[in-house]
Structure formats: C-alpha cells, structure tokens
C-alpha cells in the first residue's frame, strides 16, 4: 500500500470515496437529462458555485481571519492565558443564521408570499424577518450560554489542578 500512497498521495479509501461521489453526480446528471429545465438547473448550479467560491468564501474567510486576529491580539495584550477560545462559539451561530437566512430568503424577503400561502396555507402577513432575527438571537444566546459553561468548567478545572 505504500506505493499507492506515494503515487496517489492519499489512502485508497479516499480514491474510492471520490469515485463514489463522481458516480452519484453522474447519476444525478443522467436523471436530469430528459428534464426540459436541465439547462436552467445547470445554469443555477454554475451560478451557485461561482457565487460561493468567488463572493461568499472570501467574505467569510475574511470574517474568520478577524476572529483569529482578535485572538492573536488578545494573547499579545493580556498576560492571562486564553482558557477557552471564543472563535467557535461565534462561528456556529453566524453559520446557522446565514444558512437559515439563505435557505429561507425568498420567504423572509416576501418574494414567495403567494407560493407560501398556497403551499402551506399561511397568511403572507406573518413577519418572517422578525422570526429569523429572533431565531438568530436564540442561536447567539445558546452559544453564549455554552461559552459561559465552558469558561466555568475551565475555571473549575484550573482551580482543582492548583490544589
């Protein structure tokens, strides 16, 4: 197996998983070929890939770098060591809020109110922006509580190790 890893660069299971992904993608393409909307689906997919890779990824990579920079500055300024890194407690609610906002954007923006009223029977007068903001606040509150618990556990662990 050493020759395979030197030649391919990874474990044989990686190649197997990659081939399975290509087979699944090929099956999806073959299922869409008879569909008259297949061209629009391909255009939407290409736009989604380009929009993510060229627009969204640099934006959230920049935001993540700011969290890392803040941690670096904190280590340089303060003499106390960082017991629990806060970056993941910020990343998770931001990611959850953005994904929910992206998935439910047509409903939140009001563009799909007629479709929602027809499909779900819900009136278009419901304030979906307020609901999304409330859900975002709950995500951040839950993350803050989890961070406080992690800080508390770290302080208790540190106090017990001094004894």
List keywords for this structure.
single chain, 163 residues, mainly alpha, 3 domains, 82% helix
Describe the protein.
By secondary structure, this protein is mainly alpha-helical. The protein folds into three domains: 1-34, no CATH class; 37-82; 84-163, no CATH class. 82% of the residues lie in helices and 0% in strands. It is built from seven helices and no strands. The longest helix has 40 residues, at 38-77. The termini are far apart. It comes from Actinomycetospora succinea.
Topology overview:
Layout: H1 2-8, H2 12-32, H3 38-77, H4 87-103, H5 105-109, H6 113-120, H7 128-162
Protein name: Lipoprotein
Organism: Actinomycetospora succinea
Transmembrane segments: 41-63, 84-105, 132-156
Uncertain runs with pLDDT below 50, 5 residues or more?
none
Helix content: over 70%
Helix tally equals 7
The outline comes out as flat
Fraction of residues in β-strands: under 5%
Tell me the quaternary state.
single chain
N-to-C SSE string, H for helix and E for strand:
HHHHHHH
Please compute the radius of gyration using only Cα atoms: 23 Å
The largest sheet, given as strand count, sense and whether it forms a barrel, is:
none
Structural class: mainly alpha
Count the domains.
Answer: 3
The residue-averaged pLDDT reads: 84
Amino-to-carboxy terminus distance? 50 Å
How many beta-strand elements?
A: 0
Protein name: Lipoprotein
Keywords: Membrane, Transmembrane, Transmembrane helix
Transmembrane segments: 41-63, 84-105, 132-156
Organism: Actinomycetospora succinea
